[in-house]
Structure formats: C-alpha cells, structure tokens
Specification:
six-stranded antiparallel beta sheet, mainly beta, 0% helix, Jelly Rolls, 432 residues
C-alpha cells in the first residue's frame, strides 16, 4: 500500500529533545523550548515580561519602561532643558551663566570672585575680605589701612594739608634741593663728599682739639722748622743737590759706585790676603812672555769694585856670559796684561809691555831678586773670581846666541859657589 500522507503520531522519534521532531500541543502552540539560538526576533512579536537578563544588547529602549537607577555613563554630556528644582547637592563649580534675581545665595562667600557691588542687595556682614579683589578705595568709609597695603614709595601727593609730620627725614635725601646751611641744625655728621674740595677762609680761633697731624703733600707750607720734624722719611727732592758739611759717621749701606773723589787710605779695609811661595826651579829661553808655573793666585771678590793689590818677586838668573842678555817680567789678570811701559822712543824691541827687567845679568853664580807690585781696579761684582799670573821672557844677546833665564836657581848650578832662591806672589783685596 502506497503512503500519500504521514501522521506525526506514527513516528517514534518525536519530542523536545536533541535530534527530535517538535509537535505542537492541543492549542497549536510550541511546547517549552530553548530559544537561545533564535535571531532577528521582533520585539513587537513578544508578549509578557522578559525574564531578568543582561540588556547590554538592547537598543531603542523607551525611558517609560525603565525602572531603577541609571548609571552616570548613560547620561548625555549636556542635559536637555528640564525643571531641576528637585535636584540636590549641586556643586557651584559646575554652574555657569547668570543666576536669576530670585535666587538667594546662602553660606560662606569667601570663594566668590569678580563680584560687583551692584549685584549685592542688603548689608554685608563682617567677613574675611582676604579673597576680595578689585575693591574701589572711594568705597572705604572707616577704619585704618594697614601699612602693608600702602605702596612704597608713595605716589606724588600734595602734602600741604598734612599735620603733625615729624621733622625727622628718613631716606638718603638725594632728591632734596636748595637746602641752606642755616637750616641744618641738631646733631649728626656731614659726609666728607658734601664738603667742598677747599674750605673757605674761616676764623679758626675757636676751634679746639684740632690734631697736629697734617694730611696732604704739604707743598704749600713754608718756613718749617727742621727741629720740629720728629718722624717719617723726607722725599729725596727735599734734599739740596750738595749736602752741607756734616758728620757722616752714622751713615750705613753706602754704595761705592755713588762715591767720587779719593778715599783716604785710613778708610780702606783689607778684606782678604792670599799668598803663594814657589820653591822649585823653572827655566826658559823664550823671547816672548810665558807663564811661570805655580806663580798664580785665584781670588774671589767679597764686594763690588774691590781694589786688588799684587806684589812679590822672582829669584832669577841668566846665561849672559858677561854680554848682553837678561829677562823681563809682567803680570796678567785672566789673560789680560796689566799696566806696562809703552815708551818706544828707542825703536822698540821684543821686551816691550814689561813692568821691569834686567839686561846683562851677572854674576852667574847667584840669583837676583826681580820685584813686582801693582794695584788693579777690575770693576767687577761681588763674588767674581779673578786669576792673576806672573810671566817672564828672555832677552837674547846681540851676538845671536840664546839667553836662558832660570827661576829659583843660578845660571851655573854645578859651581861650588852657586846659590838657589824662592819666588813669591801675594794678593790683597781692599774694600773701595
């Protein structure tokens, strides 16, 4: 038999469970089902009350259907025009615009700013006006203005009506003009810069306790008595170019370079004495001057421009054989020859520049003293070392033979009658 109509009641898999067919009830209505997967359901198709649920996805909700309290986040930033007479606890900081005249303010007014008197009605009670600004001084009636609110300095004012002003002036007075000395009285001291550079001619007969100390260069003082000068130092310009004859025994630290003329011998002071004695022999046949070994002294000066006195002798002999021959002697300082003879009237010879000598030295068996003495003025600073030496030269015979000069021995040393000698050099430093 062919089926052309299916009766649901004939099916075994019918119900409201998973994977089952749903069957309407006797009122043609769906049985109770889970509708959580239903979408696009129109609210107009809903009847009855929705169960308590999360309404975050609801839109177009009518305020008339809302019960309870709305959270702050759902309010608009600016509320529409509404009657707010039932609002309480409104913060004044959130009020803008102008309050109508029918509104009465109550409470502490210390936070009110930019308030004009034209907007105040009635009497203001005693309040702290620290925060009150833009007050007009013409509206002050009584009381005293504290010093802290008075400007410093005061503006230009007419003080002709001021009374009981004390005469004491406070300040530097730099702006005061045309003050007369006759109006200066009382006590105090005038600053020195208020006095003129030169005081006018005044009668000082009544001045007392004037110190004798004079201040200034004194260039205008005349007829001063030298006996009245007790202390201080006179300027060099006050001394005459040539001092009169006075006793200078108490003068100290005089510089020798500033002295002129001759110093009496009694004023010379020997600073040091150096001496050397040569006992060994020396000989030479040089007709030019050579240094005599060891006949030298080094001296270090102890003051500026000392005088050096050099003196001594050489014990000499020469092989002249009773004919022409002999020696000449001179002194040097640091290699420079000291004072010597310069006469060349006889045509000159190789012994020029000597301080002395001997020609034709006899007898042959003895030594002859050849003295020397000289005063040297080297003009050097203190602490300068000077070296003085003795030089000797041989004078040869006209016959052409050589002459040999001996120091500290005779020309014939093998003779039983020959003799020997010593030579000396002495130096004295004398203070100029």
């Amino acid at each position: 038999m062919a089926l052309d109509k299916l009766d649901v009641t004939m099916l075994e898999d019918v119900g409201t469970g998973a994977n089952q067919l749903v069957q309407l009830d006797g009122d043609a209505k769906l049985p109770a089902l889970d509708a959580s997967n239903l979408t696009n359901v129109q609210s107009t198709s809903l009847v009855g009350n929705l169960p308590a649920a999360d309404g975050s996805a609801f839109t177009n909700i009518t305020a008339a259907n809302i019960n309870g309290t709305l959270p702050d986040a759902v309010f608009p930033t600016i509320l529409p025009a509404r009657n707010a007479q039932a609002l309480t606890d409104i913060n004044a900081a959130n009020i803008s615009g102008t309050l109508p005249s029918t509104i009465n303010l109550a409470g502490v007014g210390s936070a009110i700013t930019a308030l004009t008197a034209g907007n105040l009605v009635g009497a203001i009670s005693a309040v702290d006006g620290n925060a009150v600004t833009n007050l007009n001084a013409s509206n002050l009636g009584t009381g005293t203005i504290p010093a802290a609110v008075i400007p410093d300095p005061l503006p230009t004012l007419d003080g002709s009506n001021l009374t009981n002003v004390p005469a004491l002036i406070v300040g530097d007075g730099s702006a005061l003009t045309n003050l007369t000395g006759a109006n200066v009285n009382g006590v105090g001291t005038l600053n020195s810069d208020r006095l003129t550079g030169a005081l006018p001619v005044l009668d000082g007969a009544n001045l007392i306790n004037v110190p004798a100390l004079l201040v200034g260069d004194g260039s205008g003082l005349t007829l001063l008595d030298a006996d009245e000068i007790a202390s201080g130092t006179l300027d060099g310009a006050r001394f005459p170019a040539n001092l009169p004859a006075v006793d200078g025994s108490a003068l100290t630290n005089l510089t020798a370079t500033n002295l002129s003329g001759s110093i009496p011998l009694s004023n010379l002071v020997v600073k040091q004495v150096l001496s050397y004695t040569k006992v060994d022999a020396f000989d030479t046949d040089s007709d030019t001057f050579v240094n005599v070994p060891d006949m030298e002294i080094s001296v270090t000066t102890t003051q500026i421009n000392s005088r050096i006195v050099i003196f001594g002798h050489l014990a000499l002999s020469a092989t002249s054989n009773y004919s022409w021959g002999g020696w000449h002697v001179r002194l040097t300082r640091d290699g420079t020859v000291l004072k010597v003879g310069t006469d060349t009237a006889d045509g000159g010879n190789d012994e020029q520049s000597a301080i002395g000598g001997l020609t034709r030295s006899d007898p042959l068996h003895a030594t002859h003293p050849a003295p020397f003495q000289e005063v040297d003025v080297p003009t050097v600073a203190s602490g300068t070392t000077l070296v003085y030496k003795v030089q000797v030269a041989a004078t040869h015979m006209f016959t052409g033979g050589l002459c040999r000069v001996y120091v500290n021995r005779s020309a014939t040393p093998n003779s039983s009658v020959s003799g020997v000698g010593v030579s000396t050099i002495t130096i004295m430093e004398v203070a100029a």
